[in-house]
Design a protein that fits this description.
Blueprint (H helix, E strand, L loop, with lengths): L7 H11 L10 H8 L2 E2 L4 H8 L7 H9 L3 E5 L5 E5 H22 L1 H4 L4 H12 L4 E2 H10 L4 H6 L6 E3 L13 E4 H5 L6 H16 L4 H8 L3 H9 L4 E4 L5 E4 L15 E3 L21 H4 L10 E4 L2 E9 L2 E6 L5 H18 L2
Helix pairs in contact: 5-11, 11-13, 12-13
């Protein structure tokens, strides 16, 4: 029997539901992060704003408290970028991505790494971090005095599992410059690589599916072969997109009616729903992609959604959230955007 066909609109509503963007979920912060596959978080406020748009009655202190309680952590994970994830997912994601991250780093920065003994450098960094978190500046000074170039520290996250230690990397202290060893901060045992790979696949399908294997690989920064190997061990639902491409999913996950209303939602910079792995959902219309990602704004810009699609950008300044629609909005939609902008401004002003 032919696999069911999912339209772009159906995939859009599935994404919004799984990303908690149709209805804010009354769940703890760690659970929300596990459901959406974590939040890309190079800029500390992104995690707070991303959760505000997804979690019912979310307050800024809730995330800071979870970071301090070590139930949620920030560290280098998928695609060698900083992600905000639950403590349990950190161990799994780190195990599943570590080899691919290191191999990509060695290929991409071969010239800069030439002559650096990374095994020696990372052993020294691990020794410096043993027993206590340290500032990046302090470690750079020690390494420089011992003859290691700056690139040794910049690369260390591909060899050592480190976390940003609060209050570093929080809303009130946004500079993320205090680091600790994940082993010591989390006090959780290492996990097998295969367990990590399976959790990455499940996390992606749970937060972004149905999807192609290549989408999962793109998001996780993994070789396609590794993703397919993990998929082969799982029981999956199978669909097709409108072009006949195979889409995979976990059984029993939401596939809302394509006519489900989608409320106005505000997204932070680097929100993963806008990256190319989720292109199939149409959440970022292709004609608008150059306005969000370009040479001047490679990190993207904060955006807002109307009916499940990016419709404009926003910025916080002087106590209010100013919006810039990319195309004209109806009076009713403009009121809805302004109301949500006022709520986001109140969140900033807590």
């Amino acid at each position: 029997m032919a696999a069911p066909v999912l339209t772009v609109r159906m995939l859009n509503r599935a994404l919004l539901a799984r990303q908690l963007l149709l209805d804010r979920a009354p769940v703890p912060v760690a659970e929300a992060l596990e459901r959406i596959g974590g939040i890309q978080n190079q800029y500390a406020p992104s995690g707070y704003i991303g959760l505000w748009s997804r979690v019912a009655d979310f307050r800024r202190d809730a995330l800071t408290d979870e970071l301090e309680a070590r139930r949620v952590v920030q560290g280098t994970l998928m695609r060698s970028t900083i992600h905000l994830v639950s403590a349990s997912d950190f161990r799994l994601f780190a195990a599943g991505t570590r080899d691919a991250r290191r191999e990509w780093w060695l290929r991409s920065f071969r010239a800069q790494l030439d002559g650096i003994d990374m095994e020696s450098a990372t052993a020294r960094i691990r020794n410096l971090l043993a027993g206590q978190p340290r500032r990046a500046r302090e470690m750079l000074e020690v390494l420089a005095a011992e003859g290691y170039p700056r690139m040794a520290w910049v690369s260390a996250g591909q060899w050592i599992d480190m976390v940003r230690v609060p209050p570093s990397g929080t809303w009130r202290q946004r500079r993320a410059d205090l680091y600790g060893l994940a082993d010591e901060w989390l006090r959780r045992p290492e996990v097998p690589v295969d367990d990590g790979l399976e959790r990455l696949v499940r996390a992606y399908l749970g937060g972004f599916g149905p999807a192609a294997a290549s989408d999962i690989a793109n998001w996780a920064g993994l070789p396609l072969e590794a993703v397919r190997s993990a998929l082969d061990r799982m029981e999956l639902a199978r669909f097709e997109d409108e072009n006949g491409g195979e889409l995979l999913d976990l059984a029993g996950l939401p596939l809302p009616d394509p006519d489900t209303p989608a409320p106005v939602r505000f997204l932070p910079t680097w929100d993963a729903t806008l990256l190319v792995h989720a292109r199939r959902t149409g959440i970022l219309p292709e004609r608008l992609r150059p306005l969000i990602f370009n040479t001047k704004t490679p990190h993207s810009v904060p955006t807002f959604l109307v009916d499940g699609n990016v419709a404009g950008s926003w910025r916080y300044e002087k106590g209010r959230v100013a919006t810039q629609p990319f195309e004209p909005l109806s009076a009713a939609v403009r009121r809805a955007v302004n109301d949500e902008a006022d709520r986001l401004a109140a969140f900033h002003n807590e």
